[in-house]
Amino acid sequence: MRLFFTCLICSLSLCSFSQDLSGIWRGSFVSADNSMTDMFNLEDRYKYEVQIDQQGKKISGVTYSYKTTVFYGKASAKGTINPGTGKVVLQEIKLLELKMSESSYACWMICFMQYSKNGDEEFLEGRYSSYRETDSAACGRGKVFLRRVVTSDFYKEPFLAKHKKEKTDTATIKKIAPEPLAKTRKTTATPPRRKPLGPPPTVTARNKPIPARPQLAPPKQKDIASARLKQEPQPDKPMPVIKMKAPVVVPMVIKNRENEVVQTITSATPEITIDIYDNGTIDHDTISVYFDNKLVVNHQMLMTKAITLKLKLDDGPESHELVMVADNLGDIPPNTSLMVVKAGDKQYEVRIASTEQKNAVVIFRYEKPR
């Protein structure tokens, strides 16, 4: 069985290349010259993800190739961009991670792709050829298709966060840069005219004696008694009891990982039931689940038999967070599961993918029926 790594050459038909390819591109590649797949009209399809960092004419990044339990590989890559022709070359240079069966071998892949845009969607698609890692023998060729996405099936590389920060800082500097002062015509201001001063006021009472302060009558005895009664201490009243809420402790596995909201569900009933299954082949994925930062599932393996939770939404804050934590990636990264939510007479299906760097979050809101 021939297995493939990913090396990318993108041909962009643009007169002047100005598109920034930095980001996450995900899709698949399909072998086109396998005699067995051609005979039975089948496709040898692999999932494929590329994270690109573009700096001027140079690009670098990482590639992911994966297919069920057969193969998983991650490699670093680098390349260049030709601004005149729009061609992009991305070549794998170092193997970072690898999982495959004993009868398999890894190949370097070279892709010839075309950039296109349809509305807000951006695509890279074309053809590839590949060469075996050990002796550079030809591994095969086929088609490749990628689409720009926001999230990764694994986790975002540090260079993407750095690129986003640099882009934000540049935009902020441009926003706060002072505008050039407008040219103003010099004018000679005419000083205001002063009113002529009149004769100084005449002081007629310079040596007038200061009148004595009026004498206040002493307070009556009745008034003094009333004042004393008002100042007498009142009996002690019980102090109001203030109930302090216990501080919310966020688990470290939630605090130290990226938390991505995958869906928000509004329920008309306060009681909901959640069933969690393995989404695909049983590959020894284990998960932990937190509801409003409280552990409700601890290191359980995903199976065809559901992990069942019964939760109440009427207590606590207006919204509730259920966080799915991947304890491991199993035999086939990433950790994937199917969540079935039953809320009254309604049912929702949520497909979740989580990694050791990224948790999946589902938000629940309870609204009483009117």
Helicity, as a percent range: 10-25%
What is the general shape?
Answer: flat
| Strand residue content | over 45%
End-to-end distance: 61 Å
- Determine the structural class based on helices, strands and strand pairing: mainly beta
Overall average residue pLDDT:
76
Strand order of the largest sheet: 1-6-5-4-3-2-9-8-7
Number of helices: 4
Order of helices and strands: EEHEEEEEEEHHHEEEEEEEEE
Total number of strands? 18
Low-pLDDT segments: 6-16, 36-42
Radius of gyration: 37 Å
The largest β sheet comes out as: 9 strands, mixed, barrel
What does this structure look like?
It is a single chain. It contains 4 helices and 18 strands. By secondary structure, the protein is mainly beta. The strands form 3 sheets. A 9-stranded mixed barrel has the order 1-6-5-4-3-2-9-8-7. Strands 10-18-15-12-13 form a 5-stranded mixed β-sheet. A 4-stranded antiparallel β-sheet has the order 14-11-16-17, with no helix packed on it. Strand 5 (71-81) and strand 6 (87-100) form a beta hairpin. The longest helix has 19 residues, at 158-176. The two termini are 61 Å apart.
